């Protein structure tokens, strides 16, 4: 049975300052409502991270993510760990899916999925390293429309 609770406001907290549109995060190291860990699992700490975004005129839902930790972390460090996880998601996986349509790929046989994943990541790194202004999608379109730009992209590979 899983019990769901809220980050306790009386526990030691770390709150991240943000502007009006960006997400606010709060971490707590006190999760007394969580049942003890099952036998055989070395767990040092339970932690929760609340994320919410303040926007004018719209109530935003609070998203609470819970972490079972094998090391002791301060609430400040816990926020850093949570942000780092989403940085990876936003800088790699989301871009691969949206810009390079990775989820729409139909290659399923033998090593084709792994080979195409490597090619997509190489292409993404090449597009990111190119000094031209614009988003990844814009650079892809520009390379398709302009052979000189495509040649400069391929010449930029090191």
From TrEMBL:
The organism's taxonomic lineage, starting at the top: Bacteria, Pseudomonadati, Pseudomonadota, Alphaproteobacteria, Sphingomonadales
GO molecular function, one term: DNA binding
Official protein name in the record: ISAs1 family transposase
GO terms under biological process: DNA transposition
Record InterPro entries: ISAs1_transpos, Transposase_11, Transposase_11-like
Region ranges (Disordered): 1-37
Chain ranges of the Transposase IS4-like domain: 50-125
Originating organism: Sphingomonas populi
Bias (Basic and acidic residues) ranges: 18-29
